[in-house]
Amino acid sequence: MEETKSLIEKLRGLKYQNMYNNDFFLTWEKSDDELFSVFTVADILRKMRENNISTRIFDSGLGISVFRDNSTRTRFSFASACNLLGLEVQDLEEGKSQIAHGETVRETSNMISFMADVIGIRDDMFIGKGNKYMHEVSEAVQEGYKAEVLEQRPTLVNLQCDIDHPTQCMADLLHIIHHFGGVENLKGKKIAMTWAYSPSYGKPLSVPQGIIGLMTRMGMEVCLGHPEGYDLMPEVEEVARKNAKESGGKFTKTNSMREAFENADMVYPKSWASFAAMEKRTALYGEGKLDEIKTFEKELLAENAKHKEWQCTEEMMKLTKNGKALYLHCLPADISGVSCKEGEVAASVFDRYRELLYKEAGFKPYIIAAMMFLSKVKDPVKTFEALKSSNKPRFSGK
Amino acid sequence: MEETKSLIEKLRGLKYQNMYNNDFFLTWEKSDDELFSVFTVADILRKMRENNISTRIFDSGLGISVFRDNSTRTRFSFASACNLLGLEVQDLEEGKSQIAHGETVRETSNMISFMADVIGIRDDMFIGKGNKYMHEVSEAVQEGYKAEVLEQRPTLVNLQCDIDHPTQCMADLLHIIHHFGGVENLKGKKIAMTWAYSPSYGKPLSVPQGIIGLMTRMGMEVCLGHPEGYDLMPEVEEVARKNAKESGGKFTKTNSMREAFENADMVYPKSWASFAAMEKRTALYGEGKLDEIKTFEKELLAENAKHKEWQCTEEMMKLTKNGKALYLHCLPADISGVSCKEGEVAASVFDRYRELLYKEAGFKPYIIAAMMFLSKVKDPVKTFEALKSSNKPRFSGK
Amino acid sequence: MEETKSLIEKLRGLKYQNMYNNDFFLTWEKSDDELFSVFTVADILRKMRENNISTRIFDSGLGISVFRDNSTRTRFSFASACNLLGLEVQDLEEGKSQIAHGETVRETSNMISFMADVIGIRDDMFIGKGNKYMHEVSEAVQEGYKAEVLEQRPTLVNLQCDIDHPTQCMADLLHIIHHFGGVENLKGKKIAMTWAYSPSYGKPLSVPQGIIGLMTRMGMEVCLGHPEGYDLMPEVEEVARKNAKESGGKFTKTNSMREAFENADMVYPKSWASFAAMEKRTALYGEGKLDEIKTFEKELLAENAKHKEWQCTEEMMKLTKNGKALYLHCLPADISGVSCKEGEVAASVFDRYRELLYKEAGFKPYIIAAMMFLSKVKDPVKTFEALKSSNKPRFSGK
């Protein structure tokens, strides 16, 4: 419990006040203090749960989830985070709902929010759409709150959009921080965020974009590697460049996986579709040209297949710092010979890092809960001290 | 909190005892005192939530929902109401379940109710079916309770049937009461419940029927307007006539939208299918004549299209009391040029009333919670006073 | 409350310590003391709920359900059990999730379990699969727990596999124990577990197998009756034989329904597919031979139809002890003239036993809750005494 105490002390020193009653869309919209507040609150919530102290701050209330793409881990992470704080999850299934019947976003957002404290949205499939949709929802409930339609303003958590995947990337970073024994030890370290071959098509850009947008703030050398044509959104690369400069880190690019892995402390090899491709696909959907989409996707798969050498093999790993770089992935990974014939990573590499990968994923529920906590709780330090002293058990059968 | 105190005093004066361990099917099966008890309890629950006082009377227990038609707002209203009182929602999805496999209503009702405190049902598509089904469920659990199969008798809330939509219409009425500063101010006011054109087919009759069945009890002039052939169920019109007489109000009918709007204090323009049409359609379904249904629905759409002038335009609104009647709708509305080419209401009219419409909808979760509260709580006044004095916060991070 | 007290005393005398942090797969993997602990805890939980004492031992936490086959009653029983103890249900819908996308069981099991206290799985359709899958999940989370990926080890409850249906059969047995006034009165009684005709195809073997595997431990004569070719898994019959010997009971087999019913104290007539048939079908699925499966299922239905005389008629019931045997079924039953033209049981027989059948089903939520309780709570007696003395109401509106 000493640990919890010192974490609360740490929190006391940070500026997180702007997060109150606010949303979490993109990490680069937040100050360093705000990011570290999320990490600190996540660690406190975890410590308290490990010590069987209830962190249930809501006696009742709803956490609403909107998933516009399949999801297991994010769905369960959100549900776990809500449950940890005392919110009941209500999933807005747009199929079931009347949204299909031409209801406007503004209206639906208010209709589902009368007793909603938080809203989590995943909408990552179409460039220029997901983040925009989240802002529409946020503005709608803000209006509703101002107009006293809503008694509370539900705060939004971006569970993955077309631009960023903040809950994933911050879970990745918290994992790295713990792994290397503190954020101060990250300065000067090299992380390779590289493309990797996958037989499955059109994975979102949000993870690589989120990684270069976040890791460049920690004074690290962030090396983005991908075959020609697999570029990310230029504006996000610009963010990475700016962050690197400010943090005293580096942001480099290469079209060689070997070069990216060379002497890296961490590697994050993962497949994605190119920005240009996703944009074209989005346009085709917009025009409802389904046949053309099919043809186009075939082309893209064929293009992917030209780059099968972009695989995280044992040989590639040998290139990294002492051959022992920390392998990172958001999961699920396309594992060669396991989940597919040829994929992002060799089975032997993946196996060696499995437990670490699971631990990496384990930070996500706490990151989400921390984002909610900081957006809802007026005086986090006071609330944590109250929880600590009341010392109510999460499970009374221990 | 003074307000809460006086509301509890008000409740003390009302006769609601017959609602205990009872269901809520149709508003006209309830006494005036019982309706006003629902309104009063709804207001108390809302005030307490606004003052961050927990109204969680259930430490555990299930609220079961059965939706036989798509729904966003009602689904979330029910979930919010259950959550506010401490019940966890379990949705009976008849697709997933074995009901499809020829299980009887009696059996299913008991099988899902071993730990169920309330059941909410929406079944509004077929004339003569929905309300009947709810009664079958109610009788089944009553039997089960008597036979000690069930430890508690789950009470039913009608979330919309073929005859009435009590949670919607009572939310509408509570909105009106607050808008006009008290029920006493409603006497003599005119409300126009009119048909309106919609390109979508076969909307239920439950809202217009519920409105004429309920508003006629408040001493208002309720004017029902629709094109020839769009009649409601005759027995419900009979109820409205009777209510009007008893309450000193009026129930009038017209085939002219202009006449209905003339000098109205409130207007409720909404599309519905005719009773006769719904009956025929129900019969065709019964006989499984799917092709004939298609043809029939085409005919009905064509018939609808003959009445496009039944639209709530600015010009129509000018006819109302000082051109400023309160526009009402259960949402979602078919807004001309927004959700459809031509529909129930002009965009400019809808926009002007948007916030009020959202507030109208906001009463629904509290109406549902109040119905549950009065059906489960033995001594509501005592329970409210206990909640007030224990003063447990709903959210302890405020 | 005296009753609760003596039940707690009874529990004190039983050896259940090995159930702590353990799973529940098959009844014959558990000691008699462990089975009776489940019954005793189930009775205590029920008594406490009847006396409006909260048994909510979890302030937060998830209970995860995985249903690989349709289910109403088991789904609601699991949800009720979780809710009774304070866990929120999260359903892993494999359709929605990314499991379809080739994710391994090991990975998914950990990804959904970061805050999961229990996992309930139903997987009964394919011989040699369901129970195996449950063990894979159990090993996966055990590994994750050891590796500190998971803070707690979620314990598994078998909600029906290809071999056993422990929650059903133990609910059946607890019902019998209460019906006959104590387990000691079961010695020497005869129970007929027989096949019965059903027009629907391929029902799982888990119920008849679970029944012969469990009831043979109570010193009863368990008579398994079915037409030639409808054999159960040989290893389970072996278990039954062994149990009967040890308990001083009997395990007999016959191909005559009349012989099985002859002088029986209890009858459990229920349809199932033969072990050999299920095995072949599983193989065909494995080979993706969908057309052959269709043909094969037709053959099996034709085979079924040869045994329509296997029906629980009034005449058959006359053969039982004083014509008054206790009729048992897991529900839903195929009732002749009700849910099908010809089926497992005559309507008049079913009607006479309906209330008892519903009560039988009513034990299931408590059996599941008891299994969870014993797998999670370190000192059940202490915890029950604490719950009793704190005396927190489940519902504070009574």
TrEMBL record, chains A, B, C:
Belongs to the aspartate/ornithine carbamoyltransferase superfamily. Keywords: Transferase. This is Ornithine carbamoyltransferase. The gene is argF_1. Gene3D superfamilies: Aspartate/ornithine carbamoyltransferase (3.40.50.1370). One of its GO terms (molecular function) is ornithine carbamoyltransferase activity. GO terms for biological process: citrulline biosynthetic process; L-arginine biosynthetic process via ornithine. InterPro entries: Asp/Orn_carbamoyltranf_P-bd, Asp/Orn_carbamoylTrfase, Asp/Orn_carbamoylTrfase_sf, Asp_carbamoyltransf_Asp/Orn-bd, Carbamoyltransferase_YgeW. Residues 24-176 form the Aspartate/ornithine carbamoyltransferase carbamoyl-P binding domain. SUPFAM superfamilies: Aspartate/ornithine carbamoyltransferase (SSF53671). Residues 212-373 form the Aspartate/ornithine carbamoyltransferase Asp/Orn-binding domain. Pfam families: OTCace, OTCace_N. Its EC number is 2.1.3.3. The keyword Cell membrane does not apply.
